[in-house]
Every structure is written in C-alpha cells, then in structure tokens.
Amino acid sequence: MKSNIKCEAARCLHNCEGACDAAVVHVRHGKLGPNTARCTTYAYKINNAGSRLLMEMGEDMSLGRKDRNDSVKIACGMNDCKFFKDYNCSAEKINVLSPEDTSSGQCNCKTYKP
Fold first, then answer.
1. Which residues of 77-102 are buried (b: 16+ CB within 10 A; e: fewer)?
2. Residue 36 lies in a domain
3. pLDDT digits over 22-38, tens only?
C-alpha cells in the first residue's frame, strides 16, 4: 500500500502498518489553540460480535481507500501553515502523532509549520 501519511496512532482504524489508509484525512486547528494542528479523521476499532464498528474521536469519518496506489488526500483547514494551498495540504508527506504521545491527547500533525 502506498500512503503519503506516516501514522503513529497505532490504535486508529485507518492505521495500516504505520501508514494511513483513510480515503481523506482532515487536519484542523487543535483544541490547545491556533498553533496546533490535529487529524480529525482518527477513529478506533470496537469489536462487537465480529462486526467492524467505528467510535468517532474527531468530527470526520472516512472509509478506506479503494485504490491502494493513490496517495491519501489531505483536506487542511490550517490556513497559516506553509503547506496550506486552497484548503489542501501541499506537503508530499505528513506525519501524524499518536494521541498517547501528545499533551492534548489528540493526533497532532507533526508536519504543520506556521
């Protein structure tokens, strides 16, 4: 699988061997203020009698990508980031941190550069 997003959120439903497999990733302002960016596509698995259910941790839900050779689309609301271009991320790759590794408990975008 090709992915332009390195994901350290191992418990996320979209994490596939350290890479993001969501159809679209949404990056928005974090809850700690305007200088933090977070991935709001994060969701974790719940096993319920073998069913694949989602418990949403952010505002957005994305299904997995159908074409594994395409890059993940990154919708970005961080208009102060140097990679922001028409509500999309122009960075070739981004890195998303695990919520366990941040003081805010969010999946922060490590590539965000104001």
1. ebeebebbeeeebebeebebbbbeeb
2. yes
3. 888 999 987 766 678 99
